[in-house]
Amino acid sequence: MLPLRFQLGEVTVKEEAAYALSLAGQDADFFLGMHASGTWGEGNAEMNERGLREGVLVLSKYRTLRGHEILVATFPARGETHVFCPPNSVIKYVPLPELAFWQEQADQPRPEEGGAMKGQQGNGSDRFVIGHLDMGGWVRIHASGTVPPELPVFLSHTLAEWLRQHPQFRLVSVVPISRDGATVELHAWYECHVFPASPAAPKPIK
Asked: What residues pair up with 42 in beta bridges, in sequence order?
């Protein structure tokens, strides 16, 4: 975790931003951490550095795994930070294309690598598999075979589904792995929140 360069103050996550983050299976804390550490994303670095010196607006711009733009704005003088989407932005759920479906991978030796996404069998040219490998503390989402142009969408859906299947994990950060300018893998770090033990049942009354 990078050191924080300034305090966020009171944080407000707007409704549309919370919805966009939920669609991507991501957490606002990840973007807030980057913002407070001076990793501005697509934001204007020069203006933000001046904003830090003068105590005025500091604005970062990011994108979720689903491609929705997320803005993080801090007003140091007011001690406020807002997470929101640009005005008039369209936040909508895009279902998985029919090219893929969920099924168990029988050829994988480890159970945590099961539940992969596979392309349908056509003429053989569109066959692909997206699997996941839990490395303990981080999970690797990767593809094999002939991958489609929409691969980042399949990768993000696979990660989101994996997180839904592991409610004891909380997403910390996601790093896309690119090849030739295209995202081909996702590496996601998570924290484990162990559920509290169930209270002991009362002893029977004799």
From this structure: none
Computed on alpha carbons and rounded to an integer, the radius of gyration of the chain in Å comes to 21
Whether the Cβ atoms of residue 185 and residue 47 lie closer than 8 Å to each other: no
In a domain, 17, yes or no: yes
Amino acid present at 122: G
Q: What is the pLDDT of residues 9-67, one digit of tens each?
A: 999 999 888 888 887 878 888 899 999 999 999 999 999 999 988 889 999 999 888 78
Domain count, the chain: 2
Asked if the structure places residue 4 within a domain, the reply is: no
| Domain span including residue 128 | 100-192
Across the strands, what pairs with 81?
Answer: 11, 74
* 3-class state of residue 56 by DSSP: coil
| Amino acid making up residue 62 | Y
Instruction: Give the per-residue pLDDT at 126.
Output: 56
Angle, CA of 72, 175 and 134, to the nearest 5° = 130
Is the domain of 132 the same as that of 181? Answer: yes
Taking residues 82-101, report their average pLDDT: 62
DSSP tag of 199: P
Please enumerate in sequence order all residues whose Cβ is within 8 A of that of 167, keeping only pairs 6 or more positions apart, or say none.
Answer: none
